[in-house]
Amino acid sequence: MRELSLHILDIVQNSISAEATIVEIEIDENLRDDSLTIDICDNGRGMSETMAAQVIDPFFTTRTTRKVGLGIPMFKANAEGCDGSFEICSKEGVGTTLKAIFKHSHIDRVPLGNMADTIMTCVMSNPTGDLYYKHQINNKSFVFSTLDIRKVLGDEVPLEDLEVLKWIAEFVEEGLTSLRAEVGVQQ
User: Fold this and answer.
1) Which residues contact 116 (CB under 8 A, 6 or more apart)?
2) Residue 3: which residues within 8 A CB-CB, separation 6 or more?
3) 186 has pLDDT over 80
4) Model confidence over 112-154: pLDDT tens digits?
5) pTM of the predicted model, to two decimals?
6) CB under 8 Å to 22, separation ≥6 — which residues?
7) pLDDT for residue 95 is more than 80
8) Angle between helical axes of 162-183 and 115-125 (0-180°, round to 10)
9) Distance CA 42, CA 26 (A)
10) Once rounded to an integer, what is the mean pLDDT over residues 177-181?
11) Residue 110: which residues within 8 A CB-CB, separation 6 or more?
12) Cβ contact 99:39 at 8 Å
């Protein structure tokens, strides 16, 4: 994939398929340590140790429409190919956590991509679930949570309303732009 945000979207779609009601995405760009860490955690069905070990194999998939599953193996390969690491921890009935670490300045690290559209698409894909997104650069951070949005909207306006989705994308984009300006980095 040409952007890390597409890997994130793929993992969140897996979480939704695993009936997660809460998905947490945390991105930490530590420029002093030259690292980019992406953590994705859910409260879905989880997996056995055997299945968690199998999902990193590109020739394993639980889908019946094709014989390969490339999302997680490609994410793992991208992290490891950029002097980083990848781990997956899962427990049946509890949920799954993925952690990918990249050398931030590595020449082969693909760009993070459009996180505003990714977050909007995640909300659109699972409007009854809750999404928490934290993006940190050094010690500064931006946070988005559907729980906060639900408190403001109440029951009258659903998250999948087109105007709400448009606002979410704009809010995340503005938040990330402000975060980058505050830290003094460009995307």
Assistant:
1) 169, 170, 172, 173, 176
2) 110, 111, 112, 113, 114
3) no
4) 999 999 999 999 999 999 999 999 999 999 999 999 999 999 8
5) 0.92
6) 42, 43, 129, 130, 131, 132
7) yes
8) 150
9) 12
10) 96
11) 1, 2, 3, 4, 78
12) yes
The DSSP-derived string for 52-97 is HHHTTSTT--S-SS-S---HHHHHHHHHHTTT-EEEEEEETTTEEE
> CA-to-CA distance for 67 and 179, rounded, in angstroms?
41
CA atoms of 145 and 131, how far apart (whole Å)? 6
Environment class of 126 (CB within 10 Å of its CB; exposed 0-12, middle 13-18, buried 19+): buried
Q: How confident is the model at residue 67 (pLDDT cuts 50, 70, 90)?
A: very low
The Cβ of residue 155 has, within 10 Å, a number of other Cβ atoms equal to 6
Average pLDDT value for residue range 22-38: 97
